[in-house]
Amino acid sequence: xxxxxxxxxxxxxxxxxxxxxxxxxxxxxxxxxxxxxxxxxxxxxxxxxxxxxxxxxxxxxxxxxxxxxxxxxxxxxxxxxxxxxxxxxxxxxxxxxxxxxxxxxxxxxxxxxxxxxxxxxxxxxxxxxxxxxxxxxxxxxxxxxxxxxxxxxxxxxxxxxxxxxxxxxxxxxxxxxxxxxxxxxxxxxxxxxxxxxxxxxxxxxxxxxxxxxxxxxxxxxxxxxxxxxxxxxxxxxxxxxxxxxxxxxxxxxxxxxxxxxxxxxxxxxxxxxxxxxxxxxxxxxxxxxxxxxxxxxxxxxxxxxxxxxxxxxxxxxxxxxxxxxxxxxxxxxxxxxxxxxxxx
Length: 344
Ligand SMILES: Cc1cc2nc3c(=O)[nH]c(=O)nc-3n(C[C@H](O)[C@H](O)[C@H](O)COP(=O)(O)OP(=O)(O)OC[C@H]3O[C@@H](n4cnc5c(N)ncnc54)[C@H](O)[C@@H]3O)c2cc1C
Known about the structure:
Elements: E1 2-3, E2 10-13, H1 17-28, E3 33-36, H2 45-48, E4 54-55, E5 64-65, H3 66-78, E6 83-85, E7 90-96, E8 99-104, E9 108-112, E10 114-117, E11 123-126, E12 142-143, E13 156-160, H4 164-173, E14 178-183, H5 192-200, E15 205-207, E16 209-219, E17 222-232, E18 238-242, E19 245-248, E20 252-255, E21 266-267, E22 270-272, E23 284-286, E24 291-292, H6 300-318, H7 332-343
Parallel strand pairs: 1-9, 2-3, 2-10, 3-6, 10-23, 12-19, 13-14, 13-19, 14-15, 22-24
Antiparallel strand pairs: 4-5, 7-8, 8-9, 11-20, 16-17, 17-18, 21-22
Helix pairs in contact: 1-3, 1-6, 4-5
């Protein structure tokens, strides 16, 4: 068993937008911060699922690429030097006297004065298409999320799905690839405006069509799709179509995993919190997608607000004399000026 040195004021589980912003806010409140994330890169869903997509509803940005928002959040929190541990999945959280004890999947133990759980939707995996033999094409022409959209440029691309992700990728790649979009129903679960835009772009859409088979060649760990077979689920008609790549956007399966065994009050797929973002375990807070309360909106914007509330409450647990209200960050420069004049 390896025990990590130090006992930070706050350990943040999850380096998504909520966790990164919480790290900044905790730094602003002079708290020592440790962030842990099970993935190998920071940024949560933004890095793992949609780094090249524009986000339009983050305050202050008319549009911002998900990966650029992660970079800015990192720059913002980095000024307070948080300890960041990636590839560190927390499996266990227990109270041990005055401290909280966290154990990672690989057996590392860390102690903390308070904990903020910003673990999003827990471990998330894309919903896979259930067709015999299709899994061998994953990463070799069949994709469930897009890390690098340029791999589809100039290619014959089949997009499968009728939700927001399918529409967003249709909009982003429709004029850069030779695209066909198929959806198993005639009702789309995406924003109406997105469906309208995709139609206006002239992207061919076939409803009631599904993917049946993928054919091509796989050798030495690489693959080249030659064609797919699609079928109409009403008429049972089948058609062979030449494609180079298949992008399936069928949603995600989320799983809280071991978090459910930490003694927290669970509500649906989230952790129940009060107005202060406190869970039922003293010193343990939750914010972002994972926090459940009656006014919940699973958005980056609300995660930021919840992170600020949670961290400022955690500060008063560590230091009962500290005020909950952090003061205005814009006064920081006045204080620096005052100090400069005092020492001049
Ligand atoms: C395709 C798509 C488009 C979206 N577009 C928008 C949009 O335009 N606007 C908007 O506001 N929202 C959007 N969202 C939602 C937004 O991404 C989420 O609300 C946001 O990511 C939640 O942030 P979070 O930090 O709470 O959680 P996450 O981003 O999910 O990050 C949680 C992190 O916790 C880590 N973690 C989980 N369990 C553990 C554990 N046990 N130990 C260690 N680490 C752990 C995960 O690895 C992950 O990195 C979109 C989501 C998707 C999928």
